[in-house]
Specification:
Layout (H helix, E strand, L loop, with lengths): L2 H17 L6 E5 L4 H5 L1 E4 L12 E5 L9 E7 L5 E4 L11 E8 L3 E9 L11 E7 L2 E8 L18 E8 L4 E13 L20 E3 L5 E2 L2 H8 L12 H18 L4 E5 L18 E7 L8 H4 L7 E4 L4 E7 L9 E13 L9 E6 L12 E3 L2 E2 L15 E9 L5 E5 L1 H8 L8 E5 L5 E4 L11 E7 L1
Parallel strand pairs: 12-22
Antiparallel strand pairs: 1-11, 2-5, 3-4, 4-11, 5-10, 6-9, 6-11, 7-8, 7-10, 12-13, 14-26, 15-17, 16-25, 17-24, 18-23, 18-25, 18-26, 19-22, 19-24, 20-21
Length: 466
């Protein structure tokens, strides 16, 4: 062989070795080649669960095998977080950096792994390691770092919590008869640099968020707040609902001077008078929910169950705040939008003492009222990332667009929604509502459409010209 050919061959061997590198030594935990491995797993119930999870059937299968001759087939009967666990794990996991497994699903699904240790307590999330993944339909190689801290994880695996005692696997909201296949659960001694890269991550718009009605593009709500903080005016005192409505009525009187055909409507769930042809008809069309994606990651009640029927809800940051959608069909087609205000009444919240900023982030999904949580926007329909924070490509969960913006005042707060309603009605964009969230400089709880006192419910005040 010539020196040149020998060099080319050697280079090819090196490149092949690099491309097929295994990150450290692997230890196979479960390859599911015999019944004994299946019997090493059993169903467990979550602590404080209101109702037991339905039974999960475990069996060996020859379908969707990635190693050896068999895989584990799990057949579900429904449930929220049906979980199986095994105590057949190495006591000392400190030499390992990555947990891997091959999981095959028939549709996009959320799955999770948890490692419990001697000193772990289910109610103390910092005492155990856990992570979830949003899987695509088909075969997925799950690769999860045991060492990297993560925004939505309980934390890196720590020897301080003692020896490992169990490994759990769960799925979120399987349907009756649904099958999931798991194979080749393993550990690697090195921290795979690609770990979690296969997990659909939360993203930020690469080009930033456009602020409707302005020429501004910002990185996030915090940057918008910083840009506009010098324009903030400290409220002198709390204003009542009656005062806020009177201010809008005054604006209506002023606009009628130049738009004599202008019409004003107030949309508040359960309040009469919005339909002039049917003055006794109460408005019904306000959808709202609370979405909690606050860490830690895992099979937690708050992350899987939205707060739909509460009389007041938290108004805070993107990981803990409210989604709203208001039916605007009472506004005639072709009407010119002149002015719109969103009014919220606080059940808890002091008068603002420093600049703050809230934005209405445009939703791009037809979410179902009563079904939204941080994993899904409707039953069987998952966000592409936790809480819909996915903006890449042509089909993001939320658009990189702030429909409205402004500070909260305190007892009552008003935001200018003129451009937002124009965007929906005059611009012809689907009205999938918005996520109202802030920059962490102001905290409140506001009354919802389910508040017993109608006047304290949120309202959208609109002036339009037919």
């Amino acid at each position: 062989m010539s020196p040149r050919r020998l060099a080319v061959t050697a280079l090819a061997i090196v490149l092949t070795s690099c491309c097929t590198r295994t990150w450290g030594e692997e230890k196979v935990l479960f390859d599911f080649e015999d019944e004994a491995e299946v019997k090493g797993w059993e169903q467990t119930q979550l602590p404080k669960a209101k109702t037991p999870e339905p039974e999960v059937q475990l069996a060996l299968a020859t379908q969707h095998v990635t190693s050896g001759q068999h895989a584990l087939k799990l057949t579900y009967a429904g449930g929220t977080f049906p979980t199986i666990a095994s105590k057949r794990v190495p006591e000392d996991l400190t030499p390992y950096g990555t947990l891997k497994a091959d999981v095959t699903v028939g549709r996009p699904m959320v799955i999770g792994f948890r490692i419990m240790q001697d000193n772990s307590k289910p109610e103390k999330h910092a005492t155990y390691w856990e992570s979830t993944m949003l899987l695509k339909a088909g075969r997925n190689e799950v690769s999860l770092s045991l060492k990297k801290p993560h925004r939505y994880r309980t934390g890196p695996y720590s020897a301080k919590q003692g020896n490992a005692v169990s490994l759990s696997f769960y799925v979120y909201s399987p349907t009756k008869g649904e099958e999931v296949y798991v194979d080749n659960i393993r550990l690697t001694t090195e921290d795979d640099p690609n770990a979690d890269n296969k997990r659909t991550p939360n993203t930020r718009p690469k080009a930033g968020y456009k602020v409707l009605g302005t020429n501004l593009t910002v990185r996030d709500v915090g940057e918008l707040g910083a840009k506009l903080k010098d324009k903030w005016v400290r409220p002198e005192r709390p204003k009542t609902v009656a005062e806020r409505e009177a201010e809008f009525n005054a604006l209506y009187d002023k606009l009628k001077e130049t738009h004599p055909r202008a019409v004003m409507v107030l949309l508040r769930e359960g309040q009469k008078g919005y339909d002039r042809a049917n003055p006794d008809k109460a408005y019904v069309g306000w959808n709202s929910t609370y979405v909690d994606s606050h860490g830690p990651d895992g099979n937690l009640h708050g992350r899987a169950h939205g707060q739909y029927d509460w009389g007041n809800l938290e108004l805070f940051m993107r990981h803990r705040s409210q989604m709203m959608r208001i039916d605007l069909s009472c506004v005639p087609k072709g009407a010119k939008i002149l002015a719109v205000r969103l009014l919220l009444v606080a059940s808890y919240g002091e008068l603002a003492t420093k600049p703050n900023m809230f934005v209405a982030e445009a939703c791009n999904r037809p979410w179902a009222d009563g079904e939204v949580n941080c994993y899904r926007y409707a039953k069987g329909k998952l966000w592409r990332s936790c809480s819909g924070q996915y903006y890449d490509g042509d089909d993001p969960d939320f658009l990189p667009l702030f429909l409205a913006y402004g500070p909260a005042d305190g007892k009552t707060s008003v935001w200018d929604f003129t451009e937002a309603v124009k965007w929906w009605l005059e611009g012809g964009h689907p009205n999938h509502g918005f996520f109202l969230h802030g920059d962490a400089q102001f905290y409140a709880r506001t009354f919802t459409r389910r508040c017993k006192e109608v006047q304290k419910r949120p309202a959208l005040m609109i002036i339009y010209e037919p």
